[in-house]
Design brief:
single chain; 130 residues; alpha/beta; Rossmann fold; 6 helices; globular
């Protein structure tokens, strides 16, 4: 069985800025990874897309990905993570803690270029697919 991974928003944004299609990259690794998303990633990515045709394409592709809903349990885990990290002097963006909570809840890795995700205890973080 493939491993579950939640690509962070910056993976989509960096690929798009470079003129690449992140979903093509994901497809090339579908034999080893299952790709999931959550509402926060969808929000962060789609709000920055300026061309309606590209927005529609991303929306259609997000719609067929595994979707991890933001349950009350995930909100509680996010709040606890934020509180704990803050007390340790590790102040991270709330949206990244929320994405991490989704990954922790589903035993998924986070694919990201942001090093601060490595500050979250128990979170599997990868910066490339192979």
């Amino acid at each position: 069985m493939a491993n579950l991974v939640i690509p962070d928003s910056n993976v989509f944004i960096n690929a798009t800025r470079a003129g690449l299609d992140p979903f093509v990259e994901f497809g090339a690794h579908a034999d080893e990874w299952e790709f999931a998303t959550c509402g926060m990633v969808v929000l962060e990515v789609t709000r920055g897309l300026r061309i309606p045709k590209i927005l529609l394409s991303f929306q259609e592709r997000f719609a067929i990905m595994i979707y991890v809903p933001t349950t009350n349990q995930i909100w509680e885990r996010t709040a606890q993570l934020a509180w704990t990290l803050d007390r340790q002097g590790v102040i991270l963006p709330a949206q990244d803690i929320l994405i991490a909570a989704h990954a922790l809840q589903t035993d998924a890795a986070v694919l990201t270029h942001d090093a601060h995700f490595r500050s979250i205890p128990g979170l599997r973080v990868i910066n490339r697919l192979s």
